[in-house]
Amino acid sequence: MKKYSKNQLERFPIYLKYLRELRDQGVRHTSSPLMAEKLGYSQELIRKDLQVVCRDSGTPKVGRGVMQMIDDIETFLGYRKLIPAIVIGVGHLGGALLNYKGFLDMGMHLEAAFDNDPRIVGTEIGGKKVFGMSMLGTYIREKGIKIAVFTVPAEKAQLLAEQVVEYGVTAIWNWTPISLKVKPGIVVENVNLASSLAKLCHKMADSDRRSFTR
Amino acid sequence: MKKYSKNQLERFPIYLKYLRELRDQGVRHTSSPLMAEKLGYSQELIRKDLQVVCRDSGTPKVGRGVMQMIDDIETFLGYRKLIPAIVIGVGHLGGALLNYKGFLDMGMHLEAAFDNDPRIVGTEIGGKKVFGMSMLGTYIREKGIKIAVFTVPAEKAQLLAEQVVEYGVTAIWNWTPISLKVKPGIVVENVNLASSLAKLCHKMADSDRRSFTR
């Protein structure tokens, strides 16, 4: 397999989403220049990215087959096999993720949720059953859960990380603000909405200041 | 104001969330070493970060006042004044964001939502009214909306960006996979869940390969 960068990896799901939209509209071929125009990247960037994942190089004047590109990117990203996942912590954010239907298209299958609140244990949210925390170990082991999505309060996250790893989880999608310490071989990917919004608001303030001093 | 980096800016909301939790537990003082232990960063990093935002330098053996630090960070991040925002595109993701209650603590007030689907126009989601797209310009102008949260289909995003900017929006929180082209002075911050998940899954695959070759 060709080498690729983290930035390239981040763009492949973007290409995939766009190509699936083309497929659904009945479009059969596309090209780097057309994709560049629609997605806002440069042609050169897209051409190099596609060389990493695509098996053929396309036909001059026709471009690449949309179905083939979808297949190539899905294979590259490992979307062929859905990875079983659970959500731990069913507050507003956890509930929102359980209600979001897009994860199946991203290779992750949310199978269940866990929380300690007796008012929601036993209910279903977004079609997924909510279990009590006492069931966590049994469920992860029996179902072979690989990804735990963390939407728990910050102070619970580190201890919980150690527990789920012991039960067999190998990856944590961490929506808490905590920087988790895990043993080698365990993967953590952080999402922080507050940090993203803080960057947005600060860029706005900067932009305002520049306007005033003009 | 002291200089700060993008990485520092991303950490201030994390400190703020933690400090608010301390406050709610009745804790009145804390220190860089204590925060370092809880949050998983180094003491030196936290000490330097706090020097950017905090007005006093704390008392030896006592640390810094929690309330004062909250106040300093909220002021720094501009959370004193809630920025009015709307969500455009009420699919699963847009609906999830409308149901999430955490944005008020991050300085953003979601006031309404916009969509073209007649089945949801006129309803309320997460307590926010859903308007038809024909109301977009009037609403943004009359309410002085500054942030537009984009959860529309990819192919609609670029044209929509040009429209909302014309109506007076100065910042787009972009949850679509499109790289938006906007004029100078307009701020775009991208969130891409598919890219984050792709990084997670790929790191997992890498980690598996390393385990097998041991």
Concise overview:
Two copies of one chain form a homodimer. Helices cover about 45% and strands about 15% of the residues of chain A.
Textual characterization of the structure:
The structure is a homodimer of 214-residue chains. With 214 residues, chain A is an alpha/beta fold. Chain A is built from 8 helices and 9 strands. Chain A has helices at residues 6-24, 32-39, 43-53, 66-77, 92-99, 136-143, 154-167, 193-213; strands at 29-30, 64-65, 83-88, 108-115, 124-125, 128-132, 147-150, 171-174, 187-190. In chain A, strands 5-6-4-3-7-8-9 form a 7-stranded mixed beta sheet. Chains A and B meet through helix 1, helix 5, helix 7 and helix 8 of A and helix 1, helix 5 and helix 8 of B.
Features:
homodimer, 214 residues, alpha/beta, 7-stranded mixed sheet, two-stranded antiparallel ribbon, 8 helices, 17% strand, globular
How many β strands of chain A by DSSP? 9
What proportion of the residues of chain A is helical, as a percent range? 40-55%
Rg of chain A, nearest Å: 21 Å
Through-space gap between termini of chain A: 51 Å
- Give the count of helical stretches of chain A: 8
Largest interface, C-beta within 8 A: A-B, 69 and 69 residues
Question: What class, by secondary structure content of chain A?
Answer: alpha/beta
What is the element string of chain A, with H for helices and E for strands?
A: HEHHEHEHEEEHEHEEH
Strand order of the largest sheet of chain A: 5-6-4-3-7-8-9
Described by strand count, sense and barrel closure, the largest sheet of chain A is: 7 strands, mixed
Form type of chain A:
globular
Q: Report the oligomer.
A: homodimer
